[in-house]
Specification:
This protein is of the alpha/beta class. The protein folds into two domains: about 150 residues, Rossmann fold (3-Layer(aba) Sandwich), CATH 3.40.50.300; about 70 residues, no CATH class. The protein is built from seven helices and ten strands. It has a six-stranded mixed beta sheet with strand order 6-7-8-3-9-10, with helices on both faces. A four-stranded antiparallel beta sheet has the order 2-1-4-5, with helices on one face. A hairpin with a 6-residue loop joins strand 9 and strand 10. It is globular and about 50 Å long. Magnesium ion binds next to helix 1.
Length: about 270
């Protein structure tokens, strides 16, 4: 049966086109299938190739070999089917908070202005900015701007959300709050998400499934079906549970050896 997203024997080598540059083997034959409504996390050490694989799903990079098929069509470039959130997302400073989120809906001709407002407000509430819709974006904190960017990407209604360390620049409280909101949102609205992080606890808290990447060139070291180990609904208390703690420790053990390996690679290059 065809899957919602098929990542089929992907490899990526950088530097083969520009004269003189040494080729870097980044992705070493990765395959995976993702179903609609799943939250999948790519977890691995810095520089291993997580963003590169996600960018290929988003159509921002082309695989060297292999193919990526989303809803039956091979990914050829970026489009509105795929919504992307990066670590530092530029919001539009000349627009107010609500208008920033509405901006994500500008292409929708099937709904009227009132419906666009309703959708924008819904996602603003989800990211905890319900009371800030009339603020200018350049007057709110960086953490709040990132929430605006997340709300805008969700409001645009892509088929798949690609989130590349979106909480990476936030403080611990903001991070935890947004992890909770995101998990809740995905569950309620059955969003299909690929979430990239190097933070093990974030991965365990958010994921239905985690793919643990090896050091570069990236292979899948292990696939962990978190959905079989933790309840679908997750709250703050879960982080203190024994199951969570054991999972975290097991995965930390896996990633620790990989992080060491990538450091050794950096040194020997
Ligand atoms: N456009 C590019 N050209 C050359 N090398 C790149 C390019 N993009 C990424 N890389 C290299 O590919 C490797 C993986 O990068 P990346 O996917 O960003 O890792 P991660 O997201 O896991 O930290 C790194 O060594 C990086 O320097
Ligand atoms: Mg990255």
């Amino acid at each position: 049966m065809a899957h919602f997203l098929e990542i089929d024997r992907i490899t990526k080598v950088f530097g083969t086109t520009s004269a003189g540059a040494a080729a870097i083997n980044v992705i070493d034959g990765i395959s995976m299938n993702i179903d609609e409504g799943e939250v999948v996390v790519f977890l691995g050490p810095s520089g291993c190739g997580k963003s590169t694989l996600m960018r290929m799903v988003g159509g921002l990079e082309t695989p060297t070999t292999g193919r990526i098929v989303l809803e039956g069509r091979e990914v050829k470039g970026p489009d509105r089917q795929k919504g992307m959130v990066f670590q530092s997302y530029s919001s539009f400073p000349w627009l107010k908070v609500l208008d920033n989120v509405r901006f994500g809906l500008r292409f929708r001709t099937d709904i009227d202005a009132a419906e666009k407002d309703r959708i924008a407000r819904h996602y603003l509430r989800m990211v905890g900015l319900g009371d800030f819709e009339d603020y200018w974006v350049n007057r709110i904190s960086g953490g709040m701007r990132q929430r605006v960017a997340i709300a805008r990407t969700f409001a645009a209604g892509p088929d798949i959300l690609l989130m590349d360390e979106p909480f990476g620049a936030l403080d611990a409280q903001n991070r935890e709050f947004l992890q909770l909101q995101l998990r809740d949102l995905c569950l309620k609205e059955r969003k299909t998400v690929i979430f990239v992080t190097h933070d093990v606890e974030e991965a365990v808290f958010l994921a239905d499934r985690i793919f643990v990447f090896s050091a570069r060139p990236a292979k899948i070291l292990e696939e962990i079906a978190i959905r079989d180990l933790l309840p679908a609904e997750r709250d703050i208390k879960l982080r203190e549970s024994e199951t969570f703690f054991n999972l975290r420790n097991r995965i930390l053990g896996l990633t620790r050896t990989q992080a060491l390996r990538s450091e050794q690679m950096e040194v020997s290059q």
